[in-house]
């Protein structure tokens, strides 16, 4: 992952509502959630949810799949893990701490 992609994803998650949407999808697991259920759980208007989901989609953090008339949203776990790995990749690189050595093993 490059710095620009990480910055875009972090910026998207920097909004309180988007972070709540994303965490809701992460909690839902691989099955994801229909848009209506996300809306009910968070108590936000459909147009607001649509706006925030679009932002998460553009950064690759969320995927959508249409199943008949239902739109299923899922957290993209590869994208989430990529962002986490990017953030932790150089942990303690200059300090030589044992956490880095333990992670490499």
TrEMBL record:
PANTHER family: ARSENICAL RESISTANCE OPERON REPRESSOR ARSR-RELATED. Residues 1-95 form the HTH arsR-type domain. This is Transcriptional regulator, ArsR family. Keywords: DNA-binding, Transcription, Transcription regulation. One of its GO terms (molecular function) is DNA-binding transcription factor activity. InterPro entries: ArsR-like_HTH, HTH_ArsR_DNA-bd_dom, Metal_resp_trans_reg, WH-like_DNA-bd_sf, WH_DNA-bd_sf. The keyword Oxidoreductase does not apply.
């Amino acid at each position: 992952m490059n710095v620009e992609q990480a910055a875009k994803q972090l910026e998207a998650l920097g909004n309180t509502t988007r972070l709540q949407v994303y965490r809701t999808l992460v909690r839902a697991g691989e099955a994801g959630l229909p848009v209506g259920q996300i809306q009910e759980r968070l108590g936000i208007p459909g147009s607001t949810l649509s706006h925030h989901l679009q932002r998460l989609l553009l950064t690759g953090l969320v995927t959508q799949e249409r199943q008949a008339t239902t739109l299923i949203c899922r957290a993209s776990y590869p994208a989430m893990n990529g962002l986490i790995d990017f953030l932790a990749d150089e942990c303690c690189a200059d300090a030589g701490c044992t956490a880095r050595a333990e992670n490499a093993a």
